[in-house]
Design goal:
Blueprint: E1 2-7, H1 11-24, E2 35-41, E3 45-46, H2 52-57, E4 67-68, H3 69-76, E5 79-82, E6 85-89, E7 94-97, E8 100-102, E9 106-109, E10 112-115, E11 118-121, H4 135-138, H5 145-165, E12 172-175, E13 187-192, H6 196-208, H7 222-225, E14 226-232, H8 243-256, E15 258-262, E16 266-269, E17 273-276, E18 281-284
Parallel strand pairs: 1-2, 1-11, 2-5, 13-14, 14-15
Antiparallel strand pairs: 3-4, 6-7, 7-10, 8-9, 12-18, 16-17, 17-18
This protein binds flavin-adenine dinucleotide (FAD).
Length: 285
């Protein structure tokens, strides 16, 4: 029987495995499958990436939106193997996937070799940091649920620390070239890239920070104490859309309290500061 392996259960791989399973697989013990289809992913669940900004902003619980690969496999006549692709032998037509470990149970499955007749690699891409010094080390990319949750947790932790250790407003996150600024947010969130995701995340954040009092932050005024700045290298936000869309969106974001910085390329990212090529700096002071 022909063996298909699809590695990567993202937007492309999940759809492919599902369609192959519907066409050649079987989810019923009486009908023999015409082919064996195996989906491999390093995670047990899939989430639709355009929802990640909502997870990061805390307006969506990812558990309610995730799809279990094992359940999808059962419904659509394919198999699921969890593990990370760590090796490929084209001559022998095999792939190697990593051991499956669990924090509690330790190693559940050892490293495994799977044989294929047709292999599809649909492992997506990785975030491009454009060689900006410190960017990979100090920023959080928004490409996985883990990263979205990490951002959310760090924001809440920063707010709690600010309330506990510095209950009165202190200067945190300010552009050095704006001495006349009348209100200095205690927490500054810098979002780099004003494409659809950056714009959606900044707007969503302005709305969701309002509920931070649920974490016991009573002296904290999220509207004023958390600043959001959206930085874009091109001359306008949403650069791939028509100019009137950029203008209308910029007006809405400004009303929500998002500070827009366009035409600014990031040159350096530190543990608590960002410097742009035109020497503007966001830093703790
Ligand atoms: C925040 C965000 C918002 C977006 N919004 C939109 C939008 O509104 N509209 C739109 O059209 N596109 C949007 N995109 C882009 C879209 O999500 C991607 O184009 C699409 O996901 C690419 O599909 P893919 O199958 O190639 O890869 P992915 O969807 O990235 O899937 C890759 C899969 O491979 C798995 N994987 C990776 N490496 C390994 C390995 N070594 N071993 C095993 N498994 C592995 C990953 O866990 C993942 O499940 C957005 C992307 C992001 C990050």
């Amino acid at each position: 029987m022909h063996r298909f392996i699809v590695v990567g259960g993202g937007a492309g791989g999940l759809e492919l495995a599902t369609r192959l399973g519907d066409r050649f697989g079987s989810n019923d013990s009486k009908t023999p499958p015409k082919a064996q289809i195996t989906l491999v992913d390093r995670y047990p669940t899939h989430i639709w990436k355009p929802l990640l900004h909502e997870v990061a902003a805390g307006s969506m619980d990812p558990f309610t939106q995730e799809l279990e690969y094992a359940a999808q496999a059962l419904w659509h006549g394919f198999e699921f193997q969890q593990g990370e692709l760590i090796g490929l032998n084209r001559a022998r037509k095999t792939i190697t996937i990593s051991a499956l470990r669990d924090e509690e149970a330790g190693e559940i499955l050892p490293e495994r070799e799977l044989e294929y007749d047709t292999l599809v690699l649909a492992i997506g891409s990785t975030t491009h940091f454009f060689g900006v010094e410190g960017a990979q080390q100090h920023s959080i990319a928004l490409d996985t649920v883990h990263q979205a949750n990490l951002f959310r947790k760090r924001l809440i932790a920063a707010c709690m620390r600010a309330e506990h250790f510095a209950p009165e407003p202190v200067a945190v996150g300010i552009t050095e070239d704006e001495p006349g600024i009348d209100h200095v947010p205690r927490i500054q969130v810098a979002i780099v890239g004003a494409g659809a995701t950056g714009v959606e995340l900044s707007a969503e954040l302005r709305n969701t920070v309002q509920v931070l009092s649920a974490y016991g932050l009573h002296k904290f005024d999220p509207k004023h104490d958390i600043g959001t700045v959206l930085i874009e290298a091109r001359p306008r936000i949403l650069p791939v859309l028509q100019e009137r869309m950029s203008t209308a969106t910029a007006e809405l974001l400004t009303k929500l309290g998002v500070k827009l910085m366009t035409g600014e390329k990031i040159a350096h990212v530190g543990s608590d500061s960002i410097r742009t090529a035109r020497k503007k700096t966001f830093a703790r002071t």
